[in-house]
Write the structure tokens for this entry.
Amino acid sequence: MVATGTHLGTRNLEPSMETYMWKRRADGVHIIDLQKTWEKLVLAARIIATIDNPQDIVVISGRPFGQRAVLKFAKYTGAQALAGRFTPGTLTNQIQQGFIEPRLIIVTDPRTDHQPIKEASYVNIPTIAFCHSDSPLNYVDVAIPCNNKGKQSIGLMWWMLAREVLLLRNSPGLVRGQPWDVMVDLFFYREPEEQEKEQGAIEGAETEAWAQDGEKWDKDAEWNNTAAPTGGDWGAPTEASGWDSSVGASSGWDNAEQ
């Protein structure tokens, strides 16, 4: 958590978030108490694990840094993911095509995702949120203090929450104290330029492999052409020679019998 900067806050401090701060550095940046971060993370995981149907949980991220994380969280826990712009009325307008009635919502940033938090308050839906030092806590039931502005920090928090939920559900193949086979890198935001570069490298490797296979086939065809017999017709009869010609011709024995 320290390596990803989860403990780093901002110079601004929301009064309601003061209880989660450990100290303030000389440059004015607030430091988040990671002990309270872990306690609130476990509390949120216990709340999520009590819901029988995972589809009744909706994870939301309007910020690009958290969209990949919520999609991965939904994949491994079975929840619904709303990545990108949140359509107003999704939780309140019943005649809307995308209307849903979840039992719990989890948001990445209370300031960016203020619309779903406000709608959830209208229909009495509990809300869990990852909160920075300057995040408002209006209508937030469980606040997990962390750095929700860093792409590695927010990816790590979603990964830890997913792992804790699966541990409480007694998922097969997952034991507390042993590493999870899902890498935390899968929850990190990736720049489009990095993805294009990686895709180009993969396509270049495939092209090179095809070129090498083509050269191999060309060499095999050349060897077969040199080894194959040339000239003549395979179906033409062979001329009699040697022993066959001597046997076929009239000999002295025949002349003697005559």
